Amino acid sequence: DMYLFDLGKVVLSYDQEATMKKLAGSLNPLTALLIFAKKDEFMAEFKRDTELLESGRMTMSQFFLRLKGKTGLDLTEEKFMEIWQSGYEYYPDVLAKIAELSQKEKCGVAANLSEAQEEILRKREDFAPFTDWACSWKLGILRNSKEFFLKAAETLGVSPADCTYIDDREENLAFAKEAGMKTLLYTSIADLDILS
Known about the structure:
- The strands form two sheets. A five-stranded parallel beta sheet has the order 5-4-1-6-7, with helices on both faces.
- It starts with a strand and ends in an 11-residue tail after the last strand.
- The protein has helices spanning 16-24, 29-37, 39-54, 60-71, 77-85, 92-101, 115-122, 136-139, 146-156, 170-178, and strands at residues 2-5, 12-14, 88-90, 106-111, 130-135, 163-167, 182-185.
- It is built from ten helices and seven strands.
- By secondary structure, the chain is of the alpha/beta class.
């Protein structure tokens, strides 16, 4: 059997608003005002670009250059990545529990991630228990479908019936269940005790 984890609000959280505020510090004030005035429009376009990034149809460099072109960001791609990464908060107690679970069963990731995000996370020592990664950028499809989970299982070389997918969002669990996986709704670390 394999435990497949979503990351957001299970293993980590991402504070997009704080990240955007940090990035806004690299804008000239007039541009910042214009973006703020059209915030909903800008965020909708940002979301579309993020979906392109996470589905592997855009690289992080392309994403950065597109954002820089739209906003006039005055920073390097390296500094952008530093700010981007600073928005993550990791849950050490959950990661420790996953390390414990990985002693008995394989643990993997099935999530919407870009290539750059996967690379960053794989370098973290506390992510070592995740031996298998089925990320949207590599699969070419976002997680909001049964097909994502079927493709994830195929890529990982396991039967969907041999996977338990753990996520905090019921709609994602429904897609995994439709693909034939067992599921676990994550509300707190105590939910992982059932896997022990």
